[in-house]
UniProtKB/TrEMBL annotation:
Record-linked PANTHER family: PHOSPHOADENOSINE PHOSPHOSULFATE REDUCTASE (PTHR43196:SF2), SULFATE ADENYLYLTRANSFERASE SUBUNIT 2 (PTHR43196)
Lineage: Bacteria, Pseudomonadati, Pseudomonadota, Gammaproteobacteria, Vibrionales
Coiled-coil residue spans: none
Pfam families: PAPS_reduct
Residue span, Phosphoadenosine phosphosulphate reductase domain: 24-113
Species: Vibrio anguillarum
Cross-referenced InterPro entries: PAPS_reduct_dom, Rossmann-like_a/b/a_fold, Sulfate_adenylyltrnsfr_sub2
Protein name as it appears in the record: DNA phosphorothioation system sulfurtransferase DndC
Gene Ontology MF terms in the entry: catalytic activity
Domain of life: Bacteria
Length: 122
């Protein structure tokens, strides 16, 4: 497994959009930042890897208990008899969600056991 940090293009960052382009702060009904800063950069990266390797498996930390809609999406795209799911929009990209059955307490338990180093932001 290789991890990659994916970031939006410089002209699509939060601060460029908010301060430079005058976008309003995101709200529940107007979440412009989700697609621009997360979905688009990740989709572009996945597409580049699919064109390079024909198929890819994306590992996500999605959990069914996050919300009813998240549980529906996870269940809807699961491949029968497999731990993989089909990507909702990208063909030849498969999703592996190793913690999809975990409760939030399980996540925090593991994080505490890992003794992760935290850094203060200025």
């Amino acid at each position: 497994i290789t991890c990659h940090k994916v970031v939006p293009l410089a002209d699509q960052t939060f601060w460029t959009s908010l301060l430079g382009k005058g976008y309003p702060a995101p709200t529940r009904s107007f979440r412009w930042c989700t697609e621009r800063m997360k979905i688009d950069p990740v989709s572009d990266f996945i597409k580049s890897k699919v064109s390079q390797f024909d198929e890819v498996i994306v590992v996500l930390g999605s959990r069914s208990q996050e919300s009813a809609s998240r549980a529906q999406v996870i269940a809807k795209h699961k491949i029968d008899g497999s731990r993989l799911a089909r990507h909702t929009t990208l063909s030849n990209a498969f999703i592996y969600t190793p913690i999809d059955t975990w409760a939030v307490d399980d996540v925090w338990k593991i994080l505490r056991l890992c003794h992760l180093e935290t850094k203060q932001t200025p």
